[in-house]
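Ticket 4471: requesting a sanity check on a complex prediction with iron/sulfur cluster. Repro inputs:
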Amino acid sequence: MNAPARIKGPTTLVHGPRGGCDRPVLKERGQREVFCGLTGIVWLHRKIQDAFFLVVGSRTCAHLLQSAAGVMIFAEPRFATAVIDERDLAGLADAHDELDRVVTELLARRPDIKLLFLVGSCPSEVIKLDLAKAAERLNRNYHPATRVLAYSGSGIETTFTEGEDACLASLVPDLAATDASQLLLVGALPDIVEDQFLRMLSAMGIDSVAVLPGRNADAMPAVGPNTSYMLLQPFLTETAARLAGRGAQYLPALFPFGAAGTRAFLAAAAARFGVSDETFEAVIAAPEKRAHEAIARHRPTLAGKSISFFPDSQLEPPLARFLAEECDMRPIEVGSPYLHRQHLAEELPRLPQDVRLSEGQDVDRQLARLEDDGPDLTVCGLGLANPLEARGYRTKWAIELIFSPIHGFEQAGDLAELFARPLQRAERLAV
Ligand code: SF4
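Returned structure tokens:
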């Protein structure tokens, strides 16, 4: 079920600060069409295997989760919604008492839960339910058997990938301290993709590598002043700020999308940990070659085609860089909900000079620009895709780029294919 956050605000169009390169950024603030941060539970509950996500929300939130994550019939699910009803909204019931009762029942029935996230929503924010305080109170009863943390997945002023950022940020204050020199990879990748990165780093001789989030509550990394952290996703702004607050050092790089992005990402790690050029090249030679070959299979479909991105996941700038540099596509507009200048400092200068960069969203204005541009492919949210298809545009769902494994050398061909498929389908239909 599509549960878009529809925010109305002043419609302003100004030239903002330059985006880490010599081009202006179109800054917009108007109605948005995006999923909310609860969506992150879909991939996070699979990643942290002894965690449970208890959304404190409405029936709409419950429907969103059940349709997006599916209902597991034979397995105990690891997410649920404590529904705030009319009595809570009217202030007739003590929502904290209700929450304590639900958590007590849940943990009595599910002692396997080691990490319990209380996830805020639009309704819990509207009634100003303080979930951080609730987590503190519940920890007094249940920690150390179960750690209770809180974060917000609300759709008010946020987009869907910010749910992962808020979740990971909530973990940071709890991480153990360390003075050890280590590399910390930050972002929830599918295990199989994470393992590929760990294997390559290990083959280069970088053995002290940790990952946030860990795969279970006991596998969370330690952090300290000799930790160098690299972001696997561009939307982990708050998590990065909290890691910096713990003294960790940010290691800038391209994001590891496509062959070039993955090479640059690994090269930054190799340089930081003193890996020789020979060793680095020897380790990446075979997977990089496979990546180039896999991308080349889709280049005939993609080359010369124009593409526009509606602001959705914050992955837009690195994906546009990959499509322009490695697939010969022509990005026209690259819209992103938020352009983090520091984290995108390596990405933005590599976008073609004539790309229109926009930050924030005013959906009506962007639709008008889309009509003028007439791109061959449009990357957008689910709510916009069907109407645009009906009007003859070829679209790609932005959320598919989050649900699919797309990082690293071995996935570079699949990433190109995700963009090639709708174009091939259009060609077939046209015959
Ligand atoms: S958190 Fe807000 S936007 Fe998300 S499903 Fe619940 S009510 Fe809708």
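Notes from triage: Residues 3, 5, 36, 38, 57-58, 60-61, 64, 121-122, 153-155 surround iron/sulfur cluster (CB under 6 Å). Leaving this open until the requester confirms.
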